[in-house]
Amino acid sequence: MPTPKTAERVYRGANNDQRVAERRERLIAAAIHCFGTHGYHRTTLKMLCAEAGLTERYFYESFTNFDDILCCAYQETAVLMLHRIVAKMVSAEATPSARMLAALDAYLTEIAADKARARVMLIEIEGASERANASYREQLEISTDLIEQEICAGLPAKPANGLSPRLLSGAMLGALYHMAKNWALSDFKTPRAAMLRNLHAVAQATMDVWQAPSQPATATSRRKR
What we know:
The chain has helices at residues 16-37, 45-52, 56-62, 66-90, 96-113, 115-124, 130-151, 165-185, 192-210, 219-224; strands at 10-11, 14-15. The chain is mainly α. The longest helix is centred in the middle third of the chain and has 25 residues, at 66-90.
């Protein structure tokens, strides 16, 4: 028969590990709300813990410092966003243009639906710290992979015109990020439909160039050879 020292302590139907995980999720949710409402640098530990309904000692149960919880909040938001984008994308017609439209639609819908998460993803993470910048760059690579390998699947892996699929995918992501950030900063003033139409036009133009044939050499370029 297990002794009290070896028996797992259960409280209200949850063991200790479950309670730690639940407190951690409450703190992350509070961090998203506080950072996304007041800003990362204006949020205090007291504010965050009050939002979570926990004492400060529970913060250090799961996190080392604010930098730690910012990166965790950002990563959780990014993963959730990615899952919803992929779910929308896979149900679209199997063409790069249709997949891109679906992905953009899902992305814009998600960031407009939760302003706090949008601010954490688009504004608060970049430049907050070296670790935050590393998390941000890692997510950019993941998003570029999604564009290059999934959304644009079927486009030439080695374009005849010599362009780089990786650079083109990064360019599409850069345009999306820049426009989405400005959209969030303007409190989503531009109608979502207009954002979607213009972002898809940028992506479509890039994909058209991606698969364009190589251009024949001009008389001038032939002379230079």
